[in-house]
Amino acid sequence: STPPPGSRCPPSGGRCSPRRSPATTSRPGRAPRPGPPACPKPSPASSSPAGDITVVTWNVGTAMPPSDVTSLLHLNTGETNDADVIAIGLQEVNSKINKRLKDALFTDQWSELFMDVLSPFHFVLVSTVRMQGVILLVFAKYYHLPFLQDIQTDCTRTGLGGYWGNKGGVSVRLSIFGHMVCFLNCHLPAHLEKAEQRKEDFATILHMQQFEGRAASGILDHDLVFWFGDLNFRIESLDIRFVKYAIDSNILSQLWEKDQLNIAKSTWPVLSGFQEGPLNFPPTFKFDVGTNKYDSSAKKRKPAWTDRILWKIKSPSIGLGAGGRRPSQGVLSVSQLCYCSHMEYTVSDHKPVVAIFAVQFASKADKPPVEIYVADEWSRPEQAVVRYKMAVGFHRSSWDWIGLYRVGFRHPKDYVSYVWARSDDGERCLEKQLCAQVMFSEEALPKGKGEYILGYYSNTSSSIAGVTEPFQVSMAKGSEEGSSPTDSSGSSSEDEDDSTLVLLAPKSRSPSPGKMKRHRSRSPSLAKFQGLILRPSSRDRGTSRSPSPQSRRGLPRDIPTIHLPKEEPGHCGAKAKEPGRAADSQEGSSFYQTVREQGSPRCVSTDNPLARADPRNLGLLPALRLEMIDQAMGRRRESVDQGYPCWKMSPTSPLGCSTSPKEGSNP
C-alpha cells in the first residue's frame, strides 16, 4: 500500500505523525513468592502483536562519534513512544589499520555509543555485523528477545571487483513473531555516471547473500526487507545552481523526477516492489564538515539524496505452500510514520536519515520458547531458585545457561552472573512439559540492592529464548572473598578496564570469557594490565621496521611480556577449588593457576585483574604472550648458548624459540 505522506522531522527529533503504543505482546509473568511445584500459568500473549521499527542510516565519514545521539534515535518523547526494534546502518566508519586492530580487541566506538544511549531505554543489542567501514547494528526491547529467533548475518564485498569491502552490503536477518525480516545496509559506488554499476552491485548483493534454513534462503525471500544505506544515487541533468535554488525555495518536488533512484524504481526489475516515502527533506550530501552548508570546495559537488531507506513486503503470490497458502501465517502490514533527516549532526559531510515504521504482525509465535518463573524478590540465598519450562520442539543444549542481568543490560553477554541450565531431569521436563529447576549459588549472587532480569540463553540459536520481568535482589553486603568468576559484581571495580570483549561471539559455549560492564571505555589502554612491558618502537631503537633474521634470534626480547607479581606462600589455590570455577574449567580455560618458574611451582594471585582473564579469549594480538620475565630471559640464554635457530614465530607454540623446520625444508 502507498505510505501516508510524511513530513520532515524537526531537528529536535519530534515525531512526524502521532505515535501509538509499542508492541502489545505481554511480558513473561512471575511466580508467587512461595512457588508451587507446578509451573504457574503464564500471562496470555496478544494474538496480533504490533510494533514500531526505526531504521537509521548515516555515512559518518570516518569521524569520531558525537557526544549524544538521543534525538537521532527519537528517544526523547516518552517510553510509550519508543520503537520496539532499531536498526542502525553506518558507512565509512574509520577502518584504518590502527583502528581495526583496536576494534578487534575492543568494541568500536560507534557501537559502544549506541549501546550506551539505548540501554537505559531497555534496548539490547540483538546482532551486529561489520565489513570494514560498513556496520549494521540491530537492537530490540529486552522483552521482545524471546520472539527474535533464527538470527543470521552475511556480508558481500563489491569494491575492487569483489575483493575489497569498502563497498558492498551487510545484512542481519531474523524471525520476528514468526515472520522473516531482513535488514540490508549497503554502500554503493559513488559518482553521477556510476548508476549502472550501482544496479549491478545491488543485484550481486541480492544474489550472493544466502542464509541457512528453508524459511528464507535469499534476501528477497523474507516477508519484509528493509534496504538502506549510502546508496549514492544522484540528481541527473539539472544544474547545480537550480538544485540549490530548489532547496532554498523548498520546491523539492521539482528535483524528484530527476533523482536516479526514483527513475530506477520504475525501470529496473531488481527494484520491483521496493517502496520509499516522499523525500520531504533536503538532499543529505554533500556538506562542509561542521556546518549545514553544501560543498564549497573547488569540486562543488551537486547536492543529492544519497542516503535512503526503502522497504519491500513479500508478495502473497510468492512462495505459496500446500493448498495455496503462504508458509508464514497471516499477512504483514507496514506504514511509514516518519522519513526525515537530522541537520543538527555536522560531524560528517552526510546527514543521517531516519525512518519509522508501524508494522502489524499476524502472530505465529504466541509464547516464548522458554518461560522462566522467579520470586518477586531475592533477599536470602535460598530464594535464588529459578524454574523454567521449555516449549515443545525447543532444541535444548547442555551448554544453555541462565543469566542474571541488571536492568539496562546492553547485550546478551552483559550478565552479572549465570548458572548452567543443566537440570538432572531436563530431558524429562522437556518431554512431559514440566518445570525444570536450577539455583544460583550464594557466591554468584550480587551484593546490595537492585533490579535484575533473568534470561535463558540458547546456545543452539545464539540468542535469548526467555526472559522475566524485573525483580528485586537484596543481598546483604559482606565479605566478597568467595566471589566466583560468574559474579562480576562482587569482584568488579570501576577502575578496571571494562571494554566489551568478544561481543556476541557466535556459538560461544561459555557465556563470556571477559567481564562486561555497562559503561563505555572509548580508549582502552594496555596499561590496565599490571606489569606489562612493551618493546620500544623501531624509531626509538633506531632499527629497521621490516623484520630480519637477526631480529628474530632474540625472540623473547621482541615479544611484550607480562610480569605477574609473586604471591606470599600459603595463599594460593584456595579460590581455584571453589564450585564457581568448575564451569569455567569445563570450557577449556587456558589460564593456569600455577606457573612453574625455574623448576618450582609458583602461585599467581587470582585477585590480579589479568589473572581472571584468558588471554586467548581477550583477543590480544598473536604476538602478545604471557610469560615470566625470568623465564623468557632464561630460555633466551639457553637458546643462544646451545645455538638453536629461531625459524618462525607461532602464537600456539611453547614458550621459547618456537619450532625449528624439518630436515630439508626451506625456512
From TrEMBL:
Residues 564-581 have a biased composition (Basic and acidic residues). Residues 31-43 have a biased composition (Pro residues). Residues 1-52, 476-609, 638-667 are annotated as: Disordered. Keywords: Cytoplasm, Hydrolase, Methylation, Phosphoprotein, Repeat, SH3-binding. GO terms for biological process: phosphatidylinositol dephosphorylation. Its EC number is 3.1.3.36, 3.1.3.56. It catalyses: 1D-myo-inositol 1,4,5-trisphosphate + H2O = 1D-myo-inositol 1,4-bisphosphate + phosphate; 1D-myo-inositol 1,3,4,5-tetrakisphosphate + H2O = 1D-myo-inositol 1,3,4-trisphosphate + phosphate; a 1,2-diacyl-sn-glycero-3-phospho-(1D-myo-inositol-4,5-bisphosphate) + H2O = a 1,2-diacyl-sn-glycero-3-phospho-(1D-myo-inositol 4-phosphate) + phosphate. Residues 586-608, 650-667 have a biased composition (Polar residues). SUPFAM superfamilies: DNase I-like. It is found in: Cytoplasm. Residues 9-29, 481-492 have a biased composition (Low complexity). The keyword Hydrolase applies. GO terms for molecular function: inositol-polyphosphate 5-phosphatase activity; phosphatidylinositol-3,4,5-trisphosphate 5-phosphatase activity; phosphatidylinositol-4,5-bisphosphate 5-phosphatase activity; SH3 domain binding. InterPro entries: Endo/exonu/phosph_ase_sf, IP5, IPPc, SKICH. One of its GO terms (cellular component) is plasma membrane. It holds the Pfam family Exo_endo_phos2. Residues 49-366 form the Inositol polyphosphate-related phosphatase domain. Inositol 5-phosphatase, which converts inositol 1,4,5-trisphosphate to inositol 1,4-bisphosphate. Also converts phosphatidylinositol 4,5-bisphosphate to phosphatidylinositol 4-phosphate and inositol 1,3,4,5-tetrakisphosphate to inositol 1,3,4-trisphosphate in vitro. May be involved in modulation of the function of inositol and phosphatidylinositol polyphosphate-binding proteins that are present at membranes ruffles. Belongs to the inositol 1,4,5-trisphosphate 5-phosphatase type II family. This is Phosphatidylinositol 4,5-bisphosphate 5-phosphatase A.
